[in-house]
User: What shape does this take?
Amino acid sequence: MFECANPILNVADVARSVQYYVEVLGFTNAGWGDDEFTLVTRDAAGLYLCKGGQGHAGTWVWIGVEDVEALHAEYLRSGARILHPPEHHPWAHEMKVTDLDGHVLRCGSEPKAQK
Assistant: This one.
């Protein structure tokens, strides 16, 4: 049984990245994190942020969300770096957001019914 998957994202500055993930993207920082390695979470989604050594800039991560339209509205208000607003695909209704290091978060909810 797999328990979960938490990607490790390479970042240039952990403190700066944590600030963006917490203040702009709505994540919470782990209480044990430091300037080299930490975990940010939002509900059941978790992302490790690592300074150097692990991962590569520009990683793409897919995150399932309950309502991508509501998340898009939240991110418009918070000033998130939105690459693409919500788009319909056969597999999901999703949007793309980038962080300060060029990692892309593909956030998607159930596909919309076709008319």
Remarks:
- DSSP finds two helices and eight strands in the chain.
- The longest helix spans residues 68-78.
